[in-house]
Predict the 3D structure of the following.
Amino acid sequence: MSANHHPQKRLKKPPACDSCKARRVLCHPQPNGAPCPRCVEKNTICTTTPVIRGRPKKPAFHPKRSLAVASLSPSSSTLVATPALETTDDDACPPLTPEFVSHCFECLEFLPQINHPLMKITSIRSTLHDCAYSLHYPSLTPQARVCALAIISMASLASFHDSILGPGSRPSSLLDWGFFYGDCGGGDVAKDNDNDNDNGSIFVPWSTTNTRTANGDVLRGCGLRRARAFRALRAKTLKAAWDAGVMLESTEENALTCFLLDLLEQSDSTSPTRPWAAACIMHIRALAPRWRKYGHTASDESRWAGFFMSEALFATARRMPMMITLHDQRHLCGSEPPPLETLLASLEATRKPGIQVVWASMKPFLFHVTNLARELHLEINGDHPRLHPLSSAAVLRYLSALTLLQSVASLLLARIDALALPCPPSDRWADSGSVDTTARACGYGIAVGLAGVILPFYRELQMRCVEAAGEEDGIVNGGGNGSGVGGAGIDEDAATIFSSASPSQSQYRAQSQSRQSSAYIIKRRERERLQTYLGQAHEIAVQGAKDIARALRHMPPVHYTPLNWRVVFPWAEFCMEEVETAGAGGGGGWVDAEEVDTFLNELKILGYSLDSVSAPRALDVMNRMEAFLKRTKTPASASVSSPSAFCPASLPAATPASTSTSSTSTSPSSVLLSPHIQVIPQRQRELEMDEPVAAYGGEADAFSMSMDSAALAALLMPLGDQAWMAGQQVHGVLDVDSGGGGFGFEELDFMRG
């Protein structure tokens, strides 16, 4: 063979694309990065993930260069790795066997994320069921596999699997109430003989759960042991999501994956960026026209309103810009609801009982909460408003809106009181068919939404008051006003010099003192105005703390809501500030031991899922709460007279007419008639009744009552004619705390029908 005729080298065939590789079909790669014919036919994005073969190269190490970089960034050792930068811990990651995957999807039924609208749209659960819960099934697409990994990572926060918790104490099932509450008081607990499952579950009557204390040490041990496996699963999911490019293609599964990944990252991260949340919103906007075209119902609009509200509250709590726009709300939640004044008037005028009124009011309520969260960031606590003095007009508008929103919430919660049963029928969030479960879910959403826009507003006013006081002190002490307005202060040495100075210097001194006094007066008035606003916001915040505490008592005793950490812990700190401000020798002021005990038990339950509860700051708050409860010597659980947070309280037994020998009796120290109606002795205004109250079957003595008219109307309305007072002679007026003024019973005649 001649030297000029060499055999032509055969070109290597390019690798198959990911879509053809997943379907196990022949791929025809095209040159210059063009999509293959099958992807063009299926109208999908043609991506090819390169497969790294052979042994990986060792990273080159340059000592001198490393030292030079370290010298340029001396604080680099203090950086904390974010979850997106985590590396997969293969030893801690549990094996993704079909048995473990099936277990995680069962745990998903106990998480509130099961009711997310994206979870309803996708068919990921049925897809995994058809694949026998195998993540390596041939027909399982890469996007579905990543979505399943995200669900597994989220469900691992509630899992009791041995590969998650490892050796040590753990519950026998997700219904093992005895594990969460220790021995549960012995005789008050019985095995649930009505159930055929042998999962070791313990049945605790709902009326006794409020007297129980969660087993904090054991639950925190579970949270610490699961942290390594949870972070390993999260890192594995993040890597798989990047490899699959879930940010690039808008599908329902990719949108759900991005939503779950954002939750997983924000569970223990303080990063100011949220790339997965931004990708989720972009996917939702791209898919929304198709959803609106095919089968978008009113229930779907309410679910999207709830999702948008939770997203808005999360951004508000972190002082981050909202990703939800008003156009997004209108597109997926329907047109804008009527103003809060109209909604309040319609609720006060309606007498129709049942869950329909509450459910019809949920979407407008959630819509208004989202708008208030946006208004708070744009006008009060956002980065741009903080560059300027606080606008009094914006604060007054927000206070007025919060007052209206709280009145609407009081009416809705009072209706839920009459609908909720003493004992929740199920711990599963997916069980949403009954009226009781729907009422409890609505009550929880109302309380969380109201509390979510109150506390950030209150904290912002607190910070502004501190800044105003500091600027005022700076003027007095010679530090100026801090804003470039007015003159600087004058110390004693300068005054001595000016005393022997020339007339021109004395004139300058007088002008400087005049500017200083003017600036001081301006700052003092600003501080007094801020303190007035803070006092009004404080009253709303205290009621918000009571509402969120009732919402937590409204839930089943054992619930798996790890994301409640960002809601519960700030309110727990607020309650401790209240009781410690009131003084160590007495009660808790406006916030009593019942709220403190509720938040403490919720933090203990959260310790089962999160290791954040074992952080020094959280442990300090919990220790202070326990010390306060011991100091009161009357546990909050002992004073709970209501079997459920949103159920009417335990009422006194009916007294037969024949046994009533006197018209007066000793009033109890505190009789709880409703979450909104509390009888307290020695009030300034008294309500005297000459006849017994027919609705409650007991004799009424001279006592004082604090209530709001909307709550009383909604409480008595479902009882019909029996709710009206048997006696016709009613003296005195009711003290209306929220309405500003008193009213007589003749103004409640609309309840008689």
In short: Residues 607 and 664 are 49 Å apart (CA to CA). The two ends are 112 Å apart (CA to CA). The first strand starts at residue 190 and ends at 191. The chain has a mean pLDDT of 72.
